[in-house]
Write a structure and sequence with these properties.
It is a single chain. The chain has helices at 2-17, 26-32, 45-60, 74-77, 82-86, 101-105, 108-113, 125-131, 149-166, 186-199, 210-214, 234-253, and strands spanning 68-72, 91-95, 118-122, 171-175, 206-208. By secondary structure, it is of the alpha/beta class. It has one domain: Rossmann fold (3-Layer(aba) Sandwich), CATH 3.40.50.1110. A 5-stranded parallel beta sheet has the order 2-1-3-4-5. Helix 10 links the parallel strand 4 (171-175) and strand 5. Helix 9 packs parallel to helix 10. The longest helix has 20 residues, at 234-253. The radius of gyration is 18 Å and the shape is globular. Residues 70-238 form the SGNH hydrolase-type esterase domain. One of its GO terms (molecular function) is phosphatidylcholine lysophospholipase activity. This is Lysophospholipase L1-like esterase. InterPro entries: Ester_Hydrolysis_Enzymes (IPR051532), SGNH_hydro (IPR013830), SGNH_hydro_sf (IPR036514).
Length: 254
């Protein structure tokens, strides 16, 4: 029995070392992902449905040990094949359109189980849309409103802290929240980003100031880099990739 257990652990270690996936049983896989009835208190009605759909996709296409994982919302999801963009096979897309920081916290088990080589986090703008839902035309119905931008900043640090605690060899990068062309979000984005900058000193993550690459002179999102004042254009994604490519190349080379 002990020999069998040792052999299984050895296989698991070797698979993790070489970036391979271990075949999981249906029960094991279910335990790594939120249930099909998952409800996140700050999601709007559309995001509740889309979140569940994306979790189904993640479950059918699980991570490999040692992947590089991009965690985020629609800005990450709409990047589609990040491996193709960066020219490496190791980058996996874990973006969910509409997701908030609380939604990310509910889907951490997959991330920490597969012990990624690196995790890149860009999350928080939908929390702020939730907070200012009355200023955005009331298009979505929310069951509960995010308490404050400070809550969002603390949640981002909590995400990084949990990954660091459960997967200490994973390198963690937290990106500052991108600017938008919605004036009512401007000040709160600055608050969240300042919290992200301050919390870097705790040593759980490395800061990537993506905001500074995209902001215009008025504090908005540079027009040629966006399609609607929030989401990125192809030029926006090209700028993002060019900015972060040296980081990815260094990670893949190690």
């Amino acid at each position: 029995m002990k020999k069998t257990l040792f052999l299984l652990l050895t296989i698991a270690f070797c698979s993790a070392s070489f970036g391979q996936s271990i075949e999981l049983s249906a029960e094991q896989r279910d335990n790594l992902y939120p249930s099909g009835e998952i409800v996140s208190r700050y999601h709007n009605d559309w995001t509740q449905r889309h979140y569940r759909d994306r979790i189904k996709v993640f479950k059918s296409e699980p991570l490999n040990f040692g992947d590089i994982v991009f965690i985020g919302n629609s800005i990450t999801e709409k990047g589609r094949d990040w491996s193709e963009k960066f020219g490496t096979v190791e980058v996996r897309n874990r973006g969910i359109a509409g997701d908030l920081t609380d939604g990310v916290l509910k889907r951490m088990d997959e991330i920490v189980y597969f012990k990624p080589k690196a995790v890149f986090i860009l999350i928080g703008i939908n929390d702020l849309f939730n907070l200012h839902h009355d200023m955005d035309g009331g298009r979505f119905k929310y069951d509960k409103i995010v308490p404050s931008p400070e809550y969002v900043g603390k949640n981002i640090e909590k995400i990084a802290r949990e990954i660091h605690r459960k997967s200490p060899d994973t390198r963690i990068f937290v990106r500052t929240v991108l600017p938008t062309n919605r004036p009512f979000l401007k000040d709160d984005i600055l608050v969240v980003n300042e919290i992200i900058r301050t919390n870097e000193a705790k040593g759980n993550y490395k800061l990537i100031d993506l905001y500074a690459q995209f902001v215009d002179a008025d504090g908005g999102l540079t027009n040629e880099l966006t399609v609607d004042g929030v989401h990125l254009s192809e030029k926006g994604y090209e700028k993002w990739v060019a900015f972060e490519k040296p980081i990815l190349e260094e990670l893949v080379g190690n």
